[in-house]
Recover the amino acids of this structure.
């Protein structure tokens, strides 16, 4: 058999993965762009072409902007906790905790990340529940009755309560990734800094932070794109309510597609999400390429 | 619990600056009497820092574990106990709550989740391993393009594909069936899994294949008899991460399954919540049953989990 033929035959190994990828990942995402230019619902025989009307609808839709703002707040809070706090946590674990105990703590902190968002979401909706929940009881026990809320039932606290749950679930996960990053730093760097008289805080900023920069970039990208794709948490805990105060792009898309039956508008929202994640991905590529040149 | 554990003093490196970081021994401070007062202050400061750090870490342990313990304890309680003694242990172990949760749908959802998860593990790992083999070892035509498509696939989000997939699955007549979820869970996880396995395969020396070829192995035989067994550790990691993904996946399971009997745990639990409303102990029991398998799997296969995560994100 000729070698060219063998090379072409070897494509069979890649074929199943490639076909699935093209049919179920790439085709739908391209098709979504087309669908966003039509006005249609699940039962319409012939969708009508409306150009950019669906995007105009989004622009004039206050709930769309609420959703976008909620996603942005989600991203910012997640950056503070899942990048800032987690990095400090990882550094503390490495600096202060003996190896044996460190493993145990790491395992404990990671556990919330392996239970499903649905379970965590329902569990937290019980914790926030005014009748059986622990949050209000805890506040009552320390004399802060005035802070008690119907956490998921009030527009002013619903989104914050959801975001708090998400931090509970994800801090351990990113902390573990940082721990791995820190462990990859050659021991001599810290030793040298110690010899130069640098204390733990100085070494954190002068050795740890710069040396885990690559991991930090990756985690920032993961966290931010995760915040713009958030869906499950909100769906389970509030479904976007009360009065749309906790709507995010994902749940607003879902509501328009499958409850309001305005598929065209939902596709337009999907495109907005697509553009945002694409931009984040582009940033990642640019940043990692620039670094490669530097090194 | 953690606080009472013996505070481990790190084995001191014999550098003089060490005392600034950790509790110094009497010997080192005796050697430097001139700066005795300032070292004592520094030592006190270091001890205070250490105490604060430990307190913080212990508080975090409580914050992480307590909600989960509350869930498990409440699943054994009676409805009154849930209200009256939320902080306490259950008066007796009411296993019946789990039975009631089971017959309220959790068993059904559980079986569905097991089916969809195991099937998608099989297809995802197999197809990804094949693709990785083709890309790394056989250098397929258009390898660069295919790699680019896989890389792009890493960034594409399920939500964006939701509406077109709704139509596509109906046209393929797999909407509202296990197949819808199995196919989607496979397709959307192939990029990640292929990169994971590929990174591992690259590190296997090519002499291995050459030896196999000299022994008369075809590429197919070399894959099944030599390469695949050698990739076992990363295949385990890939399978575990796929299990975690498929077991917990929500969006697709919500949109593409409408028959109640076909629902997987994440969506089924949400249904159950609105059905049972205030039968709290049964709800807690359902949550516990859904959470437990992944926690156990993680505790057993921790090392493989973490290798998969860090290799997948690092390379």
């Amino acid at each position: 058999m000729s070698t060219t033929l063998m090379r072409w035959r070897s494509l069979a190994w890649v074929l199943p993965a490639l076909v699935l990828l093209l049919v179920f990942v790439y085709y739908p995402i391209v098709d979504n762009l087309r669908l966003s230019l039509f006005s249609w619902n699940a039962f319409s025989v012939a969708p009508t072409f409306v150009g950019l009307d669906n995007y105009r609808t989004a622009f004039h839709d206050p709930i769309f902007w609420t959703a976008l703002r909620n996603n942005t707040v989600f991203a910012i809070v997640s950056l503070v906790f899942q990048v800032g706090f987690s990095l400090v946590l990882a550094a503390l674990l490495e600096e202060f905790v003996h190896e044996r105990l460190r493993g145990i703590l790491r395992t404990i902190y990671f556990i919330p990340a392996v239970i499903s968002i649905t379970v965590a979401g329902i569990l937290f909706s019980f914790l926030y529940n005014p009748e059986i929940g622990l949050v209000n009881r805890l506040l009552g026990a320390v004399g802060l009755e005035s802070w008690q809320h119907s956490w998921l039932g009030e527009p002013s606290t619903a989104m914050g309560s959801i975001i708090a749950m998400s931090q509970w679930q994800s801090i351990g996960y990113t902390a573990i990734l940082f721990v791995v990053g820190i462990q990859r730093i050659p021991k001599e760097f810290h030793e040298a800094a110690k010899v130069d008289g640098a204390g733990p805080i100085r070494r954190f900023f002068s050795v740890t932070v710069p040396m885990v920069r690559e991991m930090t970039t990756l985690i920032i990208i993961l966290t931010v794109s995760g915040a713009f794709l958030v869906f499950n948490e909100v769906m389970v805990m509030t479904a976007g309510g009360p009065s749309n105060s906790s709507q995010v792009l994902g749940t607003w898309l879902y509501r328009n597609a499958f409850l309001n039956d305005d598929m065209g508008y939902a596709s337009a929202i999907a495109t907005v999400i697509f553009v945002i994640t694409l931009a984040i991905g582009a940033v990642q590529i640019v940043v990692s390429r620039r670094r490669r040149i530097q090194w | 619990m953690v606080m009472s554990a013996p505070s481990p003093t790190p084995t001191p490196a014999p550098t003089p600056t060490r005392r600034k970081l950790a509790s110094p021994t009497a010997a080192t401070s005796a050697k430097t009497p001139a700066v005795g007062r300032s070292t004592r202050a520094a030592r006190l400061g270091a001890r205070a820092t250490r105490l604060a750090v430990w307190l913080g870490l212990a508080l975090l342990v409580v914050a992480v574990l307590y909600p989960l313990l509350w869930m498990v304890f409440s699943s054994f309680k009676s409805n009154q106990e849930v209200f009256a003694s939320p902080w306490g242990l259950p008066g007796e172990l009411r296993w019946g709550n789990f039975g009631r949760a089971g017959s309220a749908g959790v068993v059904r959802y559980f079986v569905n989740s097991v089916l969809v998860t195991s099937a998608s593990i099989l297809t995802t790992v197999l197809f990804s391993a094949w693709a990785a083999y083709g890309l790394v070892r056989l250098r397929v035509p258009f390898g660069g393009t295919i790699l680019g498509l896989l890389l792009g696939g890493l960034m594409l989000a399920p939500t964006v594909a939701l509406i077109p997939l709704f139509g596509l699955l109906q046209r393929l007549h797999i909407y509202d069936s296990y197949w819808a979820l199995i196919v989607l869970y496979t397709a959307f996880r192939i990029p990640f899994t292929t990169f994971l396995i590929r990174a591992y395969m690259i590190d296997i020396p090519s002499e291995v294949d050459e030896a196999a070829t000299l022994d008369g192995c075809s590429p197919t035989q070399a894959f099944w008899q030599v390469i695949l067994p050698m990739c076992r550790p990363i295949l385990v990691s890939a399978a575990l991460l796929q299990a975690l993904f498929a077991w917990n996946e929500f969006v697709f399971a919500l949109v593409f399954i409408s028959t109640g009997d076909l629902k997987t745990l994440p969506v089924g639990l949400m249904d159950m919540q609105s059905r049972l409303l205030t039968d709290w102990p049964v709800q807690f029991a359902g949550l516990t049953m859904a959470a437990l398998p992944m926690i156990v799997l993680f505790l057993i296969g921790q090392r493989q989990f973490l290798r998969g995560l860090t290799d997948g994100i690092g390379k």
